[in-house]
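Holo prediction. Input below; ligand is zinc ion.
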Amino acid sequence: MSLILAIESSCDETSAAVVNGRQVFSNVVATQIEMHQKWGGVVPEAAARAHVEAILPVIQESLSIANTSVSELDAIAVTNRPGLVGALSVGVTAAQSLAFAYKKPLIGVDHLEGHLLAILALSEELKFPCISLLVSGGHSELVLINKIGDYQLLGQTRDDAAGEAYDKGARLLGLGYPGGRQISEQATEGNPKRYDLPRGLSKERYDMSFSGLKTAVLRLVEKEGNNISVPDAAASLQAAINDALIKRLRNAIEDHNPTSIALCGGVAANPDLRSRVEKLAEQNRIPAYIPPFTLCTDNAAMIGLAAAAHLVAGVGTNALNLQVHPHSVLFNRADAPQDTDS
Ligand code: KG4
Ligand code: ZN
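Structure of the complex:
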């Protein structure tokens, strides 16, 4: 086992964690959500500056909770792609400095692989091949995990990510940013059949599209005016997004006959989606791997878990060579369009 300090700063959370194998000793997250709320979304420049302020205290706290110090570490891991370049650079520079000063191996981790491998915390004996639905604010991907390190992209969104659809829908309904949680909270009191919203690309087996949904919610708000029931609209929006996701997952299970399924990324915090994925797994008599909320939204523990898996395979980088990249290169799909990560 190897003691790893992991750092994540790709978007609007500054996070540091200490993991050992699949054990998470600490997972500290400083969120910038409040700051970005007033603009209704993440402002890259402001995000980078806030990471600079938070990074050292967050690292210190993660080491102190884990009752360890940099010199005791076996390696340092950091998200170096995909994400906002300015934001990523803050985490990578901190990781490089520590790795260089303390002569520790440095492991660059793809943020998407972090989301996918958050499931490593759940069990020692995960069953592969696994079909994973990776849904976050910047991504909606349906991935066949043949084994750790071997990921096949089956489908993805053609436009907005699922989390983006939640966030944009929430904004139109006058709920705050980020909207996913508010929508799911409002939805518990609402009727999902009250408003008819489109499911997008109904004939596609794996790819998704959510931009039409945003327009449909806008029309709904214009048409209903003050008479709109926010809980009913939230429940209808949640049903439309989750129906589209579950349909793609069901198609992938039918075609690929996996031995397990998984749900990851920030939208995996959605209780309705979690229970629908669990139900689908039960129907197919296979396990569903769904990490706890804290490992679903952006966090450094998932980066450490992914790094631990790679360290076993002996992958380490010279600290000064690690670079940041806005795009992911995790998947190889011959017909895949270029990555559109944010
Ligand atoms: O993975 P994440 O923390 O950041 C990215 O890498 O994008 O995902 C954030 C996304 C946001 O769009 C947020 O609205 C969504 O996850 N989210 C939810 C819920 N909690 C967070 N979406 C639906 N229901 C939730 N309960
Ligand atoms: Zn993420």
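The first helix runs from residue 33 to 37. That is the main takeaway for now.
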